[in-house]
Amino acid sequence: IIHNSSFIISSSPHPMNRLTKFKIDPVAEALLPLGYLLLVLILDFITPKAVLTPLFGIVGLLVFAYCLTPGWMTFWSSVYAVVVTALFISPGIYMFFHKEAPQTDFLTPYARSGTFIAGAALSASLCAALSRARAMNDDFRDMLEKLTLPVITSNHDGRIVFLNRAAMDALGWGGDHHLSISYFDALAPKGVQGELIASYLRRFDQGNAVEMPPLNLECRGRRCLGSTRMMESKSTRLLMTMLDFEGDTISEKRA
After folding, report:
1. Closest Cα to residue 170, out of 242, 239, 229, 228?
2. Which helix (H) or strand (E) segment is 229 a member of?
3. Which of 28, 69, 109, 172 could form a disulfide with 88 if both were Cys (CB 3.0 to 4.6 A apart)?
4. Is 117 exposed, middle or buried (0-12, 13-18, 19+ CB in 10 A)?
5. Residue 63 vs residues 78, 138, 196: alpha-carbon distances, Å
6. Residue of 104, 141, 169 lying closest to 16 (CA atoms)
């Protein structure tokens, strides 16, 4: 039903979580980068022997890439780039902050400014990429939520990291249920838990390269088949299980 996927579902233990950016107040989103920039400029002013604004500016932009919307990120990246460029290129501004004349080398200020502008552009691109990834994950999760087929995702250790509403209903779990019960405790038929765990782990070893038969599971006393699919990325591997209660009529095969 669902083939290879590069989407990653957040591993937060709450069943209804969503992979979203670190949310800040809209007013703070507009003013926090300004406050940070002013703080860095003050530090730069009181420590004239060191040029702090470019370094702390790029660090701040990289942090803001994770919590600002792309529009605000582009705006503040441009503002930071203008400020740093003025600091390097304008002799008057440089002398105001550092109490000495800038370097006589013509190219160095422009090279430093160009380096910062490239870093600011990279930060804005990172923010945009993260925003697209979050949107894709939210769309994928919304799709799973709307499926009438129970869907569960779990990690290598059997910890359930997501389940849709149909799966919660099948398991008899409420919306505020804390997922302290493992995949095996929730779905393994009595007496064959060891066999189920072995079959479950083989799917992580073989990935999607080999088509494996559905797992024989038990959900609240009802036999069901669990069709599985690996969801992989560079850092995370999750197993997605789709429960089919029509399999009650199929002759049982141990996992």
Report:
1. 242
2. strand 222-232
3. 109
4. middle
5. 16, 22, 43
6. 141
* Cα(58)–Cα(78) distance, integer angstroms: 12
Tokens matching residue 124: 């804005």
Q: Are the C-beta atoms of residues 203 and 213 closer than 8 Å to each other?
A: no
The pTM of this model reads 0.62
CA distances from 147 to 138, 140, 230 (A): 14, 11, 18
How far is residue 138 CA from its own chain's centroid? 11
Q: Which residue has the tokens 């800040």?
A: 24
**Under 8 Å between Cβ of 153 and 161:** yes
Q: Are 116 and 58 in contact (CB under 8 A)?
A: yes
CA dist 125 and 82 (Å) reads 18
Closest CA to 57 of 86, 28, 92: 86
pLDDT in tens, the chain (255 residues): 444 444 444 444 443 344 445 566 778 888 999 999 999 999 989 988 888 899 999 999 999 999 899 999 999 999 999 999 998 888 888 888 877 776 667 678 888 899 999 999 999 999 999 999 888 878 877 887 887 889 998 999 999 888 888 888 888 886 555 557 789 988 999 888 889 999 999 999 888 878 889 999 998 888 899 999 998 776 688 999 999 886 444 334 444
**CA angle at residue 46 from 40 to 48, to 5 degrees?**
100
- The terminus-to-terminus CA distance of the chain in angstroms comes to 20
